[in-house]
Structure formats: C-alpha cells, structure tokens
Amino acid sequence: MAPRVAVDNPTKVRNIVLIGAQAQNLRDNVYFQYVYLPILYAEKVLDHKHNGLISLQEASKDPTFEIISGKVISHLLQKQITNNSNATSNRIIQQQQSKGNSTNNNAEISIDKGLKPLLLKRIESLTTYDPKCVDLEGCPTYVKSHFALGSTLNMIGNVSSTTGILILQGENDTNTPVQQAFMLQQRLTELNHPDHTLITYPGLGHQLSPAFGYFVPGSGMYGLQKAGPIEEYALADLYAWLEAHSGFTHPYRILLVANGSLGTNMTSSSK
What we know:
Helices cover 45% and strands 15% of the residues. The protein is an alpha/beta fold. It folds into two domains: 2-24 and 151-268, 3-Layer(aba) Sandwich (Rossmann fold); 28-129.
C-alpha cells in the first residue's frame, strides 16, 4: 500500500517505511503460509519414518502444527467422528496394520496426497462467497480483490528516486519471510534507487517482536509469532532513520549513535 501511495503522490510523500512487507502477490504469500510452511513442518518434524506419512493423532495434538495448518487435521478427525462414512475422509486416510487390525489410534495421512489437498482447500475457502461475512479484511470479496493486485516488487520500481525507503524485517517472520525483503532490496539496487535501507533482525517475527515456539527445521523460522510490542531497539532504528530524513537533529540521535542502536544487519544505498 505505501509504495502505491508514494507512486501516486510523488511530490507529497518524502519517505516510506515497510515493515514485514511482502514483495510478491498476496496469493503467493498465502501459499507460503497456508501450504508450504505446514508441509515443511510435517516433513521435518512429524514424518518420523521419512515415508511421506504422518500420524493423525500426533498432528492434531501438536500445538505448533495446529496453528500453522489451521487445524485441518483436527477438523478431519472431527468429521470422521460425526460421519464415519464420509468418502473424502476415508479416501485420504491410510490405516496401519497392528496385529491384523486397523484402529484410529494408528491412522496416518499422506503429506502429498492427503495433507496438501486439505491445505489447498483452505486457500480456496478464502475466496468462496460468504454472505454472512462481516470482517472486511477476511471476507472473500476483499481477498479476491487483493489477490488481483499487482505485486509490491513491480510497484516499488516506480517510486520516485527522491523518496527515501526503509525496509525493516524480522528474520524469523513466518507471515512474510525475510526473502521477501531481500527481493525488494535487490529490485531497488538493480534500479539504482539512491536512498533505500534494509535492516533485518535475528529472532524477531512479523511485528518485530520475538518469535517463539518450535523451530521449523529447514525454514530458519519459528512456528509461532508473538503479537507485539515492537522491540525497543527496532523502534530506535526507525526513529533514527526518520530523524535523519526529516531535516532536523535531536539529542536522542546522538545517544542512538553512541550506543550503536542502528541494526548491525543493515544495508543501505544512502551516501
């Protein structure tokens, strides 16, 4: 949104700040959140035998997986309980044999053929018309229109060279992964934008607050995010950058520089 406003108002917008910004289209980002990350977790954490199958019972009781997968396994088990003849549920569930008998205690699901389709249906549900929806940002009409928008990666190249751009990004962000920030930085560098800065923060999540929970192997991220507040040192970096771009100085900036508050993982095109 900020780059779009800056492009439409080049003489009015002097600086923009992007925190946990997505470079790609929202649909791509939703796929990462709804499909890629849960599957990665299932493969690295829940697939103990490395055979592409995970235990339904274990998955439904894993708090991190429940959150990042939208409780799709719990919903599937509940559907089984209420309707044991449900063809969809029975088709994607495989029963291991225990002494010649199959029981729900050892039921498994294929990650690729069972779990992935369930996760993809979550994305489909985002754009399925719901006349009872009253949450603007969560309603299908809003999501569909957002999916249709161009990416920030394409838009940011049209931002005026006189507009300063600051990108702040938590390295453990599972909403918009740090690679999104690197893509924006690379695009601005390719275009020789004269004033852009990227600061990344190890251990912080989407809202620049500490990430926590079970670490997802292979992703460089934690499965859960803490909902604020923003860490003080990240706010200090933001303040210092805005102050430097505002045309005036303040004693607080001297303190920031003396304490080395500006992020160590910082790249800047500013001279």
